[in-house]
User: Fold this.
Amino acid sequence: MASQIQKNLVEKNAEYARTFDQGHLALPPAKKYLVVTCMDARIDPAAAFGISLGDAHVIRNAGASARDAQRSIVISEQLLGTREIILVKHTGCGMLTFTNDDAHALVKQNLGASAAAELGPLDFLPFPELETAVKEDVEFLKRSATVPDDVPITGWVYEVETGKVRQVV
Assistant:
């Protein structure tokens, strides 16, 4: 039996598909850039960052982590031709609220020892200070041999309280 969430997906997709006319868009992003941002449900990258369908790749993960996004970044750049990276973290991020030890303890408590063992020494990539984390991720990408030296990389903070962005680096 379908959940309410699944029913909503089917219903809303039917509405969307009725007027969909963008099937002609090319696989590579038209504006040749990618955005790394957080998976936080309060962020609508298309609306907040002015991204039209087909313009850019949007890579989302917990905390807008460049390290976590590296595989997708390489695919985007090397296979699909993107030439710029915009990294956007945000205020009120959950990654500011815990440490690796906290996350590992929670997994063990809620899911048991086998789940904790399966994760091993996984780094959940939390961070204690927002702007420092933006700078560190931009530096990680600039130092990475997987990102060409001529690719512009900028780091931003999106304010969930106001909807505004501000450049950090």
